[in-house]
TrEMBL record:
Entry protein name: Reverse transcriptase domain-containing protein
Superkingdom of this protein's organism: Eukaryota
Organism: Sesamum latifolium
Pfam families from the UniProt entry: RVT_1 (PF00078)
Reverse transcriptase domain location: 274-359
Length: 380
């Protein structure tokens, strides 16, 4: 069986089986896309990051100097060393958790430094926390590098695509579930809030969403504006409400409702390339009603899903506030008494330029058990 890299990324846990032919002259081939085998305790593997332990050599010497007769000395001594290294490895704790804790301590100190820039004690603590964090990261990276078994991997090139693919293939027998990432997801909603968001849509919600849409918006593929639906609501309201409710109950959306007109608005008087245009999606009115209901319901939990520094989503703030804050921070950035640091100017793309629905739905799954929201997101 042959498979390319893209296929292996999509199906990392696939199992290929060739069964016995029995009475046939061909062997049946079986592809199992999920591996449900229980993974037991792994055999002992020495982790190279233990070489950096201060008492590494002394521990080895304590075991190796014992006199054992016969050829079995090697086996018995290595067996004793396994116990020593297991205990040493256990003393190191969970490397990922060590990195998380070190990052947390460093973040707390840096947060305090924002209000006390001239505090020598905090500056010294930050320096110590930086060293602890760097050491924890180095230990974790060395372990992953060793398990990837790439002798040609350069130092520091620990986040390359090849490194990721090799680790992915080696870990296919013990797949990491999305719940593994849950401790790093800080913005979540409770099951009660998710249930409230999933409540049945009322007729009043549909009507309010429709009447909140401006009447002078450009018409879409169906040619109907919100003004038409408002004026004829006594006749069309029941059908429109039924269509919206059906989407919220089934998660399925008609292709005709999901069709949009993409209008390109020039940013300059003489546009020369595609990037010089601002794309505007002209959606159908029913689609807008669906989205407005979702947005209205999300407002109640929005403060739990975003960070306070995301000014574009915080009422009363402007997206330019972060720009002004960055300028103030950079005014005294090159002072000699501060620790060495750098600033990166990154050109961030719009979300719709690189959106990947698999990533969106995976994040929704981590945020809450709101399964209906994932189905609706895929449909929209």
């Amino acid at each position: 069986m042959m498979a390319n890299e893209a296929w292996m990324e999509m199906w990392p846990n696939v199992i290929y089986l060739a069964s016995n032919p029995r009475t046939s002259d061909h062997s049946p081939l079986i592809l199992q896309s999920t591996d449900e085998r229980n993974v037991g305790n792994s055999i002992f593997r020495f982790d190279n990051f233990l070489l950096k332990a201060l008492d590494f050599l002394s521990r080895v010497e304590d075991v190796w100097r014992h006199h054992i007769h016969g050829i079995v000395f090697y086996y018995k001594k290595t067996k004793l060393l396994k116990l020593v290294f297991r205990n040493l490895r256990k003393a190191k704790g969970d490397l990922a958790r060590n990195v998380e804790q070190a990052a947390g301590f460093l973040a707390n100190i840096q947060q305090l430094l924002k209000d006390n820039v001239n505090c020598d004690l905090l500056l010294e603590l930050e320096k110590c926390c930086r060293l602890v964090y760097s050491k924890a990261v180095a230990q974790e990276q060395r372990m992953h590098k060793q398990r990837a078994k790439l002798k040609w991997l350069k130092e520091g090139d620990v986040c390359s695509r090849t490194f990721f693919l090799e680790n992915q293939s080696l870990q296919s027998s013990g797949k990491i579930d999305l719940q593994f990432l849950l401790p790093w997801v800080k913005h979540t909603i409770s099951n009660v809030e998710a249930a409230a968001l999933s409540q049945n849509i009322s007729d009043q919600e549909v009507k309010e969403a429709m009447f909140d849409i401006a009447e002078d918006k450009s018409t879409r593929l169906d040619g109907l504006s919100s003004g038409f639906f408002k004026a004829a609501w006594s006749m069309v309201g029941a059908k429109v409400t039924k269509a919206v409710k059906e989407f919220y109950s089934t998660g399925c959306l008609l292709k005709q409702v999901n069709e949009s007109v993409l209008a390109l608005i020039p940013k300059f008087e003489i546009p020369r390339e595609v990037a010089d245009y601002r794309p505007i999606a002209c959606c159908n009115v029913i689609y807008k009603v669906i989205m407005r209901i979702m947005v209205t319901r999300m407002k109640g939990v929005l403060q739990k899903l975003i960070d306070s520094i995301q000014n574009a989503f915080v009422p009363g703030r402007s997206i330019s506030g972060n720009i002004l804050s960055a300028q103030e921070l950079l005014l005294e950035y090159n002072q000699m008494r501060l620790p060495p640091r750098c600033a990166l100017k990154i050109n961030l793309k719009k979300a719709y330029d690189t959106v990947e629905w698999g990533f969106v739905t995976a994040n929704l799954k981590l945020i809450s058990s709101w399964s209906s929201a994932r189905a609706r997101a895929r449909a929209l």
